[in-house]
Amino acid sequence: MTDLEALAARSDPDGEIRHLKSTIAALRQALEDGEAERAALLQKVRAAYEGDIAELKATITALREALEESSHNGRVAVERAVANSADEIAQLRQIAQALRERIESLHHEHRQEIQRLNAASQDEAVQLQAEARALREQLEEAAFQTQVQRQEAVAVAAGEIQDLKVTCQALRHELDRIRGDAQ
Q1: Distances in Å between the alpha carbon of 19 and those of 51, 55, 83, 156, 168?
Q2: Are 143 and 44 in contact (CB under 8 A)?
Q3: What is the C-alpha to C-alpha distance for residues 50 and 54, in angstroms, rounded to an integer?
Q4: In this structure, what is the dihedral angle of CA atoms 70, 74, 80, 86, given to the nearest 10 degrees?
Q5: d(CA 154, CA 32)
Q6: Residue 92: which pLDDT band, with cuts at 50, 70 and 90?
Q7: Radius of gyration of the CA atoms of the chain, in A
Q8: Across the chain, which distance is largest between two alpha carbons, in Å?
Q9: pTM summary value
Q10: How distant, in Å, are the alpha carbons of 1, 45, 113, 140 from that of 122?
Q11: CB contact at 8 A, 10 and 176
Q12: Average pLDDT in the 119-127 region?
């Protein structure tokens, strides 16, 4: 503090109080801004997490529709084969035998396809679970970082408040000393 500031501080204690109050108000504002930033960051992380979930649900829906379409296509093929066999009464036994063999082949292929799709969906589920775990870990890390930043901001604010208290005490002591000298 310069001599001029010391002289001004001695002659204007109300100005000093106003200055301290404005400093405290600025610190409060900084703390509120930090809280708002933390809330915005949390909202951003939550939005990203929800977007990933929506993508995963869309993938699951697409896989389900593909499986249903495959099943439907298999049924349609069997129905066509049976409808075509009705035109040829004389060849019914041969066609029926051929259709039985074809149906058994289709069932076998269908079972293999279902097994393949089940394995693929299980792999997809494992991947989705891994992604969900990774996202959960990222969210927890972001929450932890936010908490750390908040604690750091609170510690900085507390340090500044303590510094202000010390300064106020020193100024009061100086004011009391000046008053004592003036009397």
Answers
A1: 48, 54, 94, 19, 11
A2: no
A3: 6
A4: -170
A5: 11
A6: low
A7: 39
A8: 134
A9: 0.32
A10: 72, 28, 14, 26
A11: no
A12: 90
